[in-house]
Amino acid sequence: MTTTSQRVVVTGVGALTPIGATAHETWEAALKGTSGAATITEPWMADHGDLPVRFAARTPPPGIDVLPKHEAKRLDPSGQLAVVAARQAWADAGAPDVDPVRLGAVVATGIGGLWTTLDAWEVLRTRGARRVLPMTVPMLMPNSSAGAVSLALGARAGAHAPVSACASGAEAVTLALGMIRSGRADVVVAGGTEACVHPLTLATFSAMKALSTRNDAPERASRPYDVTRDGFVMGDGAGLLVLESAEHARARGARVYAEVLGAGMSADAYDIAAPEPEGAGASRAIAEALAVAGATPSDVVHVNAHATSTPVGDLAEVRALRGALGGALDDVAVSATKSMTGHLLGAAGAVESIFTVLALHHRAAPPTINVDDLDPAVDLDVVRGAPRPLGDGVAVNNSFGFGGHNVAVAFGTAS
Amino acid sequence: MALSEQEILAGVAELVNEETGLPVESVELDKSFTDDLDIDSLSMTSIVVQAEDRFSVTIPDEDTKNLKTVRDVVNYIQQAQG
Known about the structure:
The structure holds two protein chains of two kinds. Chain A is of the alpha/beta class. Chain A has helices spanning 23-31, 69-72, 77-92, 114-127, 136-140, 144-153, 168-181, 199-207, 246-251, 280-293, 311-325, 338-341, 348-362; strands at 8-16, 37-39, 55-57, 103-108, 158-160, 187-194, 237-245, 258-267, 300-304, 333-335, 364-365, 381-382, 388-389, 394-401, 405-413. Chain B has a single domain (5-80), classed as ACP-like (Non-ribosomal Peptide Synthetase Peptidyl Carrier Protein, Chain A). Chain B contains four helices and no strands. The termini of chain B are close together. The A-B interface holds A 68-71, 73, 130-131, 133-135 and B 17-21, 42, 45-46, 49, 53.
């Protein structure tokens, strides 16, 4: 990443998640330790009685009051969530007055327009080629949400769609930081979206043995760091942040939630799906984020961990954190918010960036739920039971993805 | 039973509204889809495909390009219904 002395801040947040219809609702729900996981009740589950996983953390589609029918019709469910979250973030930032050619959009997804693809395939098979709607391609392409958000906000500095599985949302924040620091934009709306809970993804992630099968207690299934964790809980949702040069934010008197200090990225080149068990690549990403931030391990007060609740992944991240932070890790309050939201895949890194930013802003680390019996191999100070007061300093959001992608973003208390 | 011109117009207006968000009352017989209603070709294709379903008619592509106004579509559907 090109780095300059340009300081970048977060001035707006928007989200639709399994635990809240806005970013601030989501934050309040997280402080209370709310689970968003539930048994799937849609009629399509009945056609797939053999699915080994029958629950997920769902986010309801936006209502017609926030997204008119003609707009919703032209967007995949993931695009609908992205556009609404982007408008929330924009309004939350006070609708900045910015030259459109200095406004960017970076909206990531892990999977993309799966429902659109499969619905169109069904129409083609049962009713023929003439019945397939012409908006199908613009709705299913992985950059669809980036384009739609760019269109919705009139962002003309560039529209980008990083795709790195479950690291995508954090990579979007990283690219947005780069856009501002390299001088391409003054304001960037960045984040991720996902809406791919579908019998096909439930079946295929299950085939990888990646998902928890705790069907009898969905709200207790996402349990990062607990000895009985047995996989992640798939979820859908979207999170968007407004990143802005500090100069631009200051000039318009904007409220600043936190500063984006730096980001680091690396690749494992170890396995297409499994994390490298020692967490060496992830550790490099964290160290790079701190180096770009000009911070030391002892500056770090909080980590929002990737912690998906898989047996191998959670431990690899513990080692990565220990490698990057050393003894300073003992004084860091670690939260695993996927215990509440489930794993939002391409949106995870964005929603968790929002949690990290709001943790600094409100000086509180959200709790991690369902840690009944902490895995003795997890030598972290995991925030459990209730939110933990936080001092000023640096907070790191980790996100890792199938493909070996590692992303860490370092935020700082607003000065 | 064949639908009246008014019934077909109401149905077409509803499709246009769902596709574009234009108010149904703006969809009048003498309006041009491109010049007056600012409907692009992808939306037009989508509206035609849905009109075929709704009115149980077939509108071949070679005919679609001649449907310039709302009246053209309404008349086409009326005749196709026989």
